[in-house]
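Quick question: what would this complex look like in 3D?
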Amino acid sequence: MSQIHNRDSFLDNIANKLGRPRQTEPVERPKLKHTCHHEVMAEFSVDELKDVLVNYARTALGSQAIETTKAALTTTLADVCKKYCTDEDNSTDTTQAPCETIVSADPRLLAIFDPEQLDTPEHIVHIWDTKLGYGPNIEVAERAKVGIVFAEQALAESGTMVLYSQPAQGRAISLLPEASIFVVPKSHLVARLTQATAVLHEKAKKGERLPSCVNFISGPSSTADIELIKVIGVHGPIYATYVIIDDM
Amino acid sequence: MSMKTSKLKFKERIKVQMKDDFMRESVANAQTRMYTNRQIAADKLGNWEQWREMGMDIRDHVLENLDYYLHQLSENVKNNGGQVFFARTASDATNYVESIIKAKNAKKVVKSKSMVTEEINLNQIIERNGCEVIETDLGEYILQVDDCDPPSHIVVPALHKNRYQIRDIFKDKIGYEGSEDPEELTRYVRDYIRHDFLQADIGITGCNFAVAESGTVTLVTNEGNARLATSLPKTHIAVMGMERIVPTFEELDIVISLLCRSAVGIPLTGYVTALTGPREEENLDGPEEFHLVIVDNGRSDILGSEFRDILRCVRCAACVNTCPAYRHIGGQSYGSIYSGPIGAVLSPLLGGYDDFKDLPYACSLCRACHDVCPVKIPLSDLLLKHRQKMGEEKITPLAERAAVGAFNIINAHPLLWDKTVKIGATVASGLIRNGKLPLQMGAISEWTEARDLPQPDGQSFRSWFKNRN
């Protein structure tokens, strides 16, 4: 089966409307006239960027932001999971099923954090496992209260976590559970979208296939579709915590 | 829903809408808030004029080389393992989607918000195949549940409804029993349609910007529904207006930065999702099949016309949020899925003058929209062009054309002008009583519905000037 349909007639018509023959030679992209996008927070140290990110996440996004160290990461994550698992209104109900968490299998995350230490009778921890296939992983993610993922980059200006889909870190981990925890090393902080799109541009220029899903996530899901009143928590996660690793 | 959303005439629609006090108050409040937030975000970023200039240049460059970039985009989508369908007309596009529905024997489609799918009336085509289609953006969902009420804003489609109305619609249609609290209403929908995402055979989305260099489709959203629709179903169909494309990620940075600030006054929306082809082999979630439908549906005609600048549009609705006409008449008065200044320019171009000839007149030519447009579209100039074109094509009413023709003749002859004004002054002083004319005369009678005409003194300005003391 052909993969491209009706292209020539469609593009011939466009060229015709533009009053010239088809443009088939590579087009030279004009250089952007200004550099203001590179100048945003250009002089900031990584600690200053961190302050901007933390402040924006807390005040504008309704997210939590926690600074920790590699050594303390497991404890930090245990605390955050515990908080999410007990925040439920009906937490006094002792008969309810144990709280579950699904963790990305990104080796960079597993190198600094041992999920098994979070695994207790009240809190079951699953690791995203490609060997199990689509169904079992999605079922767990849908049941889980918390999803823990590892971010490629964090954008200070907009309080954004950048995630690349990969076999070890499926899209569903940061999507189906009610709460998302993003782990990001401080050294991954950059000023804004400009630095993130630059990475993707470099990959594309080299002819690499980009990850099928790159997500720029700023806080929990939200809407303002009813009377323009902001409601946090729609179809995506309702809660988000950014865990920044200071010594990494 | 097709582009046209009402069978009533323009002035009848306005009459209905003007009586809706809730709608008018809500639109006015929303406008003020969105306008203010946009301004704050633009000021905070700094160098806004430079950003706008780059936005305009990028969009112009793409339009000038559109055939090249669409070719590059389609090659890259193919290389990533996706399918590309170029659709000249709305029915080309819907036929293609229909063929996928049939081939997959799809029973359920989840959709995230997309204006172009509304424009081509896609939902109706899907449903006629016995396939359920669920609009999953909360605003679109409210409208769909309410028997497909037309949208009134391109970003916040259910802006004209208040929480009580929404509560009642949900009670009536989807078994809601809670309060009118927006959070409770929202959470109910979250739980109510989650299973639809998990069961759907196909996810359909629009495309805010495609990136030619990588074959990527970018979605700018907040609710997480677009992520669900493109992560869980086995097939993803993205439908894009053919002009919604940038060359590389470097330009994507600029247009997304402009779009988010202009639309909702924040640096980035909750989710900016860049999707490149179907999922890679070894990944578990994400679609196995990816189809990109590139829609012309009248856009190439615009490209070749004096209205080309309108194709720079990034659908942020900043012009809508600043327009005094929109503020008073609300979005549904436009009778098109595209409302406000952008709708008044675009609807007649895509839908023809027959249905939308009145829209270019829903404008006081104040030019506020020029100043806020992130890609510097001269919207009111384009509205004037529409009026001029309709005059030339004799679409404007005969009486109006005759009046303007007579004015042109009189205005070109000083003696005739002098006489006419003198006669006019005398006649007017004889006719106007208590600020009203005794006979109904087109625009004057409408104008005097809420105002009084001045009491004339029977002489023209010039004769008064000559005779003063």
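Answer marked as accepted. The longest strand of chain B covers residues 235-241.
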